[in-house]
Design goal:
The chain is α+β, with helices and mostly antiparallel strands. Among the domains are: about 195-270, Alpha-Beta Plaits; about 275-350, RRM (RNA recognition motif) domain (Alpha-Beta Plaits, 2-Layer Sandwich), CATH 3.30.70.330; about 370-435, no CATH class. The chain has 18 helices and 11 strands. The protein has helices spanning about 1-5, 15-20, 55-65, 75-95, 100-105, 105-120, 130-145, 150-160, 175, 185, 210-220, 220-225, 245-260, 260-265, 290-300, 330-335, 400-405, 425-435; strands at about 65-70, 70, 195-200, 230-235, 240-245, 265-270, 275-285, 310-315, 320-325, 340, 345-350.
Length: about 450
């Protein structure tokens, strides 16, 4: 029993109150004790956000009971406890009333309301009806917002004596009570387009100094009023400078050119626009570039010289993924097709974003072999241990957590660092797209 207990997880009340959604939890269980009565047709592709409570419970149970090669993915202890907890949750959702559900999630509101009710010994202490109506309006107003549960507001209402009963807070469904924002809502505000310039050491120097060191020694960013959004090293000992506006970029260039020592040692270049890319998956080894280009030309009814094999990625045994560069209209046509015929087989096609992520520290911009950090960080919880040994039951993205702390943003951190919908990753994608030409 002790082995089972360690896999149970907890839901943090402050996360529901302050963020308005339940925290994402890494599942810790696997085969069924009581299989769900709800069957889900795999051909119906319903988004998680559009599912009913019953469908979501069924999907959670499918994750718990997942098997790989007829072998349960998770051990018996957690899988049995997970199914048992799901059974209890289903029973409670069916049997509990709306008021009991609110009491379970926000006990401080109903407790205070009960205390206030007991403090009404005579008519003189009864809350004025007009005052009560005002408080009811506040309750209804709070329900109409995207996040219907505001901790401070509920505490204030409970303190002033409003009963948090179904008569005052009508519960229509659990989904309406706790509105879990989707990643689309989190990332709907795309990153602002950055204005970039590339700096390189001039070729006539025998031992050029690093560009960053030159800038730090010759330009005082605060005194000169230089606003830089980001910097990153690039090939040939160069440095890319990103600014949020063309005005900020021009101000930086004016300050740089005004320094004779910098003008003599630094070459300034505009970044060249590149064509977008797509990736063709699982092409058999031994397939030549020419065969792939001919297949692309046939599918799009154009010439082979419109396409270029940028590079190949290693796939499963005996397979490679071809990354293709082409004019944007052709890339869009291929992505719309979604599949391409080659050597009597269909191959999936997706848009390719050349964004590196380190498997050691989980940061973007480099790979594991070039990582300079000493510690290993987990892709699941962000703590300092190998991902393969992680036993934490709550996902936390290290990149979003650092962005919140360093850049004072408010990204959702309850996801894996490898999630393609991660806000920081989406910023990297947007930055990569800005470097391409789609015209």
């Amino acid at each position: 029993m002790e082995n089972i207990e360690k896999y149970q997880f907890s839901v943090h009340l402050e996360d529901i109150c302050e963020k308005g959604f339940l925290p994402l939890v890494r599942s810790q269980s696997s085969s069924t004790i009581c299989s769900s009565d709800i069957s889900e047709n795999p051909s119906t592709k319903i988004k998680d956000e559009d599912c009913s409570i019953e469908q979501l419970l069924n999907r959670i149970r499918n994750v718990i009971n997942y098997k790989k090669s007829n072998k349960p993915y998770l051990p018996n202890g957690p899988k049995e406890r997970g199914n048992h907890l799901l059974d209890l949750l289903e029973d409670k959702l069916k049997n509990n009333s709306a008021s009991e559900l609110i009491t379970a999630i926000f006990p401080f509101t109903t407790d205070r309301a009960i205390q206030t009710t007991h403090q009404v010994p005579n008519a003189s202490s009864v809350v004025d009806n007009s005052h009560l109506n005002e408080q009811e309006k506040k309750v209804k107003a709070s329900q109409s917002k995207e996040n219907p549960f505001n901790k401070d507001q509920l505490e204030e209402l409970a303190h002033t004596g409003v009963q948090t009963s179904p008569a005052h807070i009508q519960v229509q469904s659990t989904a309406q009570q706790i509105q879990i924002p989707s990643y689309a809502q989190v990332t709907e505000n795309k990153a602002k387009k950055l204005h970039t310039i590339l700096l390189y050491p001039k070729e006539d120097q025998e031992k050029p100094q690093p560009i960053r060191n030159l800038l730090q020694s010759e330009l005082n960013q605060r005194k000169e009023g230089i606003k830089i959004a980001a910097t990153r090293p690039i090939r040939k000992n160069g440095l890319a400078i990103d600014c949020t506006s063309q005005k900020d970029l021009q101000n930086f260039l004016d300050k740089l050119n005004a320094k004779e020592s910098l003008a003599k040692t630094i070459d300034i270049k505009q970044p060249s626009k590149r064509y977008p890319r797509c990736v063709i998956y699982d092409i058999r080894e031994g397939t030549s570039d020419e065969e792939v280009l001919q297949a692309l030309a046939m599918e799009t009814d154009t010439d082979t010289d419109k396409f270029k094999v940028s590079f190949k990625l290693r796939g499963k045994e005996g397979r490679n993924h071809f990354v293709i560069s082409a004019p944007p209209q052709l890339i869009q046509e291929l992505i719309t097709l979604r599949k391409i015929s080659l050597n009597w087989q269909k191959h999936n096609i997706r848009e390719h974003f050349d964004i590196k992520r380190c498997f050691k520290c989980q940061d973007f911009g480099h790979i594991q072999t070039n990582c300079k950090r000493k510690n290993v960080y987990c892709v699941y919880c962000g703590n300092s241990h190998p991902s393969s040994t992680c036993r934490n039951n709550r996902a936390q993205c290290l990149n979003c957590s650092e962005a919140n702390r360093n850049r004072r943003v408010k990204y959702d951190i309850n996801h894996f660092a490898s999630d393609n919908k991660c806000p920081v990753y989406q910023q990297m994608v947007q930055r990569y797209k800005d470097s391409l030409t789609y015209e």
